[in-house]
Amino acid sequence: MVAIGTPGSSSAKRVMLLGSGELGKEVAIELQRLGCEVIAVDRYAHAPAMQVAHKSHVINMLDEEALYELIRVESPDLVVPEIEAIATESLLKVEQEGTKVVPTARAANLTMNRRGIRELVASELGIRTSPYRFVKTHHELEQAATDLGLPCVVKPVMSSSGKGQSTIRQRTDILQSWNYALEGTRGGADSLIVEGFVNFDYEITLLTVRHVDGVSFCEPIGHRQEGGDYRESWQPQPMDEGVLIECQSIATQVSDALGGFGIFGMEFFIQGETVYFSEVSPRPHDTGLVTLISQNLSEFQLHVRAILGLPVPYIQQYGPSASCPVLVSGESKAVEFVDVDRALREPQTDVRLFGKPEVSGSRRMGVVVTQRDTVDEAREAASRLAACVSVEPSSEVSRI
Ligand code: AMP
Q1: Residue 124 Cα to ligand 1 middle (Å)
Q2: Which of 145, 230, 263, 375 lies 20 to 30 A from 325 at CA?
Q3: Residue 11 buriedness (CB in 10 A; 0-12 / 13-18 / 19+)
């Protein structure tokens, strides 16, 4: 039996979201729909999920003591990490003291750092990944490039949205890659991962749900990345049945090793019939925004059901669908989107504007999702309509 109380009362099911971006906002909305009390946390005020939460806090979530103190004072029933950049030592501590962490504090801890998850998947579970090395100095990076061969991909062990990621194509790129990775490194991480380049045919996210009745999968999501950040995603990615079964089997193995309930975004590279595990996030995935239109239960609904201990009896994929982010670049605290009506005039199309309070540089501010007769048509329409959601010409920002 799962009991959910009344928000604001002693019976409330209180859920604390660590990270209040666009994915957290959708999770908060789904929690609200099931009558939970939502406490949103992020490093800045008016973050998207805070705008739909009962309560919010602004703290540096990489500050172990501040995070521990906040969780202790709020004493939520569930702590739900929505980003990687969290002092996961605090999560390990509160879990030991009896607070439930989604999916588990260990999963959050292992996946916040590329070293943790690589070592679990490649060394302990023996699953195929790209060949890799961890390096701490420029000299070690040069050596790794020699060992792995060129091209190779350099990433900070802790970073997000492709920050600090680059590809070394010739030896003269090494110094630039080194400097770029250091700029993109977050949270006191002291090393980089260097990966042999996998010349894959396509890459997928396999959304995998661990719930009270077992493990369920969404149809595979194909996506295209630029500089480590997603530019479009589509579902279903056409693929060989045997290859999909292998991905599902690896996803089950990896999610079992991490444990707990929730959705896991499992990323794979596919080259012919060979499957390479790339990485996993134990939470909704940005490429999974397409499920806002493509499924009876979006990845956010699935996550919320799973973490509350509710059943997931059936996931229905409605047909070829795609998502394309609305990216904005420049400096503004008052971005205005125009021509949203033009995008919404087309059938089976939705626009989500995240309500982020500010742009400084380049930022994902919204997404267009659409369902069509074929994947190609869905991709074309999502990109065209995302381009049509333009920003106010008088502001100092532009779409990119
Ligand atoms: P990640 O942040 O590790 O998911 O990397 C972002 C994207 O960069 C991936 O989705 C791939 O498109 C690309 N990428 C990362 N690692 C490799 C690799 N070893 N070989 C080829 N492409 C890669």
Answers
A1: 22
A2: 263
A3: exposed
In the CATH scheme, what is the code of domain 198-319?
3.30.470.20
Q: Is the CB of 228 under 6 A from ligand 1?
A: yes
Is it true that domain 14-101 has CATH number 3.90.170.10? no
Report the alpha-carbon distance of residue 108 to residue 205 in Å, rounded: 19
CA 173/CA 192 separation, integer angstroms:
16
Catalytically active residues are: 160, 162, 267, 279, 286-287, 364
Q: pLDDT of 17-49, one tens digit each?
A: 999 999 999 999 999 999 999 999 999 999 999
Contact yes or no for 289/337 (Cβ under 8 A): no
367-396: string of b/e by CB count within 10 Å (b at 16+)?
Answer: bbbbbbeebeebbbbbbebbebbbbeeebe
Residue ranges of the chain with per-residue pLDDT less than 70: 187-189, 392-396, 399-400
**Left (φ > 0), alpha (ψ -120 to 50) or beta: where does 372 sit?**
beta
pTM for the full predicted model:
0.96
Matching fold, domains 14-101 and 322-400: no
* Chain centroid, CA 114 distance in Å: 14
Strand partners, 265: 207, 281
Residues 79, 300, 326: CA angle, nearest 5 degrees: 115
In the prediction, which pLDDT does 272 show?
98
Ligand 1 lined by 203 (C-beta under 6 Å)? yes
